[in-house]
């Protein structure tokens, strides 16, 4: 999982889900697991 300033490019990928947990934003992609990222 990468920590990134901007998740916009990862959100646009097919299969991406944006999840907010305890004020932290995650992008989870089950189709392409290498595009997991965290912000905040």
Automatic annotation (TrEMBL):
A GO cellular component annotation in the UniProt record = ribosome
Q: Does the keyword Ribosomal protein apply?
A: yes
Signal sequence span per UniProt?
none
**Superkingdom classification of source:** Bacteria
Does the keyword Coiled coil feature in the UniProt annotation? no
Q: Which InterPro entries match?
A: Ribosomal_bL36 (IPR000473), Ribosomal_bL36_sp (IPR035977), Ribosomal_L36_bact (IPR047621)
Q: Which UniProt keywords apply?
A: Ribonucleoprotein, Ribosomal protein
- Which family does the similarity line name? Belongs to the bacterial ribosomal protein bL36 family.
Q: Which NCBIfam families match?
A: PRK00831.1 (NF002021)
Recorded protein name is: Large ribosomal subunit protein bL36
Tell me what organism the protein belongs to: Streptomyces rameus
């Amino acid at each position: 999982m990468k920590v990134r300033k901007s998740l916009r490019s990862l959100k646009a990928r097919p299969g991406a889900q944006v999840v907010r947990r305890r004020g932290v934003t995650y992008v989870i992609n089950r189709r392409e697991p290498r595009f997991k990222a965290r912000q905040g």
